[in-house]
Write a structure and sequence with these properties.
The chain is an alpha+beta fold. Helix content is 34%, strand content 18%. Bound molecules: flavin-adenine dinucleotide. GO terms for molecular function: FMN binding; oxidoreductase activity.
Length: 527
């Protein structure tokens, strides 16, 4: 902290009394006894000197941070992107590459009726109404425009004739990148930024946000040359943000201590799909300087993951895009279906965890027709790694997973009868009732049959910094925007409420990241 000047008089004033009042009081006292002007004033120290100055300083190099950087740079601001890890992209670059857009040209070509209002309704239903309607409305309304922007402006390639129906969505509305990965978006984002002269500064850990006594955020402290996860590594420096800081630091799915404070069930035993750097330092720092952090305990556990691979892997593609959409999920102990395979993630993950607690095992099951919908190459990889296994007969499937044969055969027969007897244009069966079954659903009878084992893993943080629709971070004590501070992406809360629908995170990150970057670039500079 050698670059900081101490507020000696304040420390002296606190003295023994400060010790009695404890840390909370210490951080909330105004510096000179006067009422804070711009909201919660929690920082008594500002740097003696700034090592560098930019108009817009962005924390995090995922979808949200890169979208913010792009818009800020295009608006003429000087920009820097700070990333603590040795590679750029965060969770975004390992993401599954599925992006929702309501009322898109691809839906029109496929004869699917949809609207931003329907998408917003789906998000609010899954979110149990905890979503902030103004944010949901904005993101749904801008979804198609933003996906088209990724194509025309960034050159992102999606599959031409395929849309995904994620659980909780009423219709097929999600574009799929050509390689089933978020890297198909992040790499073009990085390339476009590089052409504009902006390259993320890697191994640069943001340790402190400077919020001055006038209430404005003015810059950051960083550790340059940081070696994750060594907290004290790297050299301390300061960066001044003349117009704004954008917090796009993502979620904390890998931070066991922080996530257990929010939800004690999520112990170290529960694996996560996230990259190792998805930790909570900036969540703590944003709280410390007076951001209103909302809904932090709504942490999504992904139901479609597999115990047979680390992290997110590829199993979710099989379990969702083949077995949920066109196949079934089973309790292997009973040989019966146990859930609407197209229900939202929380409903499905809770059901699996409940069965696991009773010693049951769950599997995702699809036939040859269902897996033909997967992105080319995905099934091969899944079979090579042993995550998905193939069987020539239903009896062989039952035997491999210790399922009672008769019960399993009856389950598949009943499902097939229901599909056969339903209206092919609006198929419905006994369990997939909460959504419209994807068109193209046919009986499960074409060998070989494919199976993956299911294990829920910590996936997404629905909570985070509360922002308005201009992506300004809001102060916990005034409910007003914190001057000079913007936030976007998984670092923010209030968009998804209790449950994030699949494919709605990318669109959230891109819409709000762009808003954060362009609004920060337009802000009045302070120095
Ligand atoms: C495996 C996986 C698959 C997914 N698939 C999909 C999908 O198909 N569709 C969908 O809509 N959503 C999906 N999601 C969710 C979605 O990918 C994330 O919500 C999204 O990528 C978050 O983007 P972001 O820009 O907010 O944060 P991130 O991409 O996580 O980027 C944040 C960055 O900030 C950095 N950072 C954090 N703290 C600091 C600090 N103190 N200093 C400097 N840098 C810091 C992190 O290291 C990270 O690189 C998936 C998530 C995962 C994990």
């Amino acid at each position: 902290m050698s670059d900081e000047k101490s507020n000696l008089s304040r420390r002296g004033f606190l003295g023994a009394g400060g010790a009695i009042m404890g840390g909370l009081a210490l951080t909330q006292l105004p510096l000179d006894g006067a009422a804070p002007k711009g909201g919660t004033v929690v920082d008594s120290t500002m740097p003696r000197k700034w090592d560098e100055t930019f108009d817009v300083v962005i924390v995090g190099s995922g979808f949200a941070g890169l979208a913010a950087a792009y818009e800020a740079k295009k608006a003429g601001a000087s920009v820097v992107v700070l990333e603590k890890m040795p590679t750029a992209g965060g969770n975004s670059i390992i993401n599954g590459g599925i992006v929702s857009a309501a009322g898109s040209p691809l839906q029109a070509r496929m004869g699917i009726k949809d609207s931003p209002e329907l998408m917003a309704k789906d998000m609010m239903v899954a979110g149990l109404g905890l979503n902030h309607p103004d944010l949901v409305k904005l993101i749904s309304e801008k979804s198609t425009e933003t996906v088209l922007w990724t194509i025309s402006e960034l050159g992102v390639k999606y599959l031409d004739n395929e849309l995904v129906q994620e659980g909780g969505h009423t219709v097929k509305r999600s574009y799929k990148t050509y390689n089933s990965s978020g890297s198909a978006i992040v790499l073009p984002q990085l390339a476009k930024l590089k052409a504009l002269g902006v390259e993320p500064r890697l191994e640069t850990f943001v340790t402190r946000i400077y919020r001055d006594k006038d209430g404005r955020v003015k810059g950051l402290q960083i550790r340059e040359g940081y070696e994750f996860p060594k907290a004290d590594s790297g050299k301390l420096k300061t960066i001044r943000a003349r117009k704004g800081v954008v917090l796009a630091h993502g979620g904390f799915g890998q931070d066991v201590a922080y996530r257990m404070i929010q939800d004690p069930k999520l112990t170290a035993k529960v694996e996560s799909t996230n990259q190792p750097g998805a930790t909570a330092e900036m969540w703590r720092e944003a709280s410390r300087i007076g951001c209103n952090i909302i809904q932090g305990d709504w942490i999504q556990v992904g139901p479609w993951a597999s115990p047979d691979e680390k992290g997110f892997g590829l199993a979710p593609h099989f379990a969702q895009e083949a077995a949920s959409m066109y196949g079934i999920w089973l309790d292997a102990t009973t040989g019966k279906r146990f859930i609407d395979e197209l229900a939202n993630r929380k409903i499905r993950a809770d059901a699996i965890m409940m069965l696991m607690n009773q010693g049951h095992k769950c599997i995702a099951f699809a036939d040859a027709k269902a897996v033909s919908r997967l992105t080319p190459g995905v099934l091969d990889k899944l079979q090579k790694s042993g995550v998905v296994k193939a069987y020539n007969t239903l009896e062989a499937v039952a035997d491999a997973y210790g399922m009672p044969r008769a019960a399993f055969l009856e389950t598949v027969a009943k499902y097939n009868t229901n599909i056969r007897n339903s209206d092919p244009k609006n198929p419905k069966d006994d369990i997939k009732v909460s959504t419209r079954l994807p068109e193209g659903t046919v009986p499960l009878e074409t060998a070989p049959f494919y199976v993956s084992r299911l294990l829920p893993k910590v996936h997404h943080c629905m909570g985070g910094i509360y922002t308005n629709t201009a992506a300004q971070a809001m102060d916990v004590s005034t409910d007003k925007p914190i001057e000079g501070l913007y936030a976007a992406g998984e670092a923010t809360g209030g968009v998804h409420g209790a449950v994030r629908l699949g494919s709605c995170a990318v669109i959230d990150c891109l819409v709000m990241g762009r808003a954060a970057g362009s609004n920060a670039a337009k802000a009045k500079a302070w120095g």
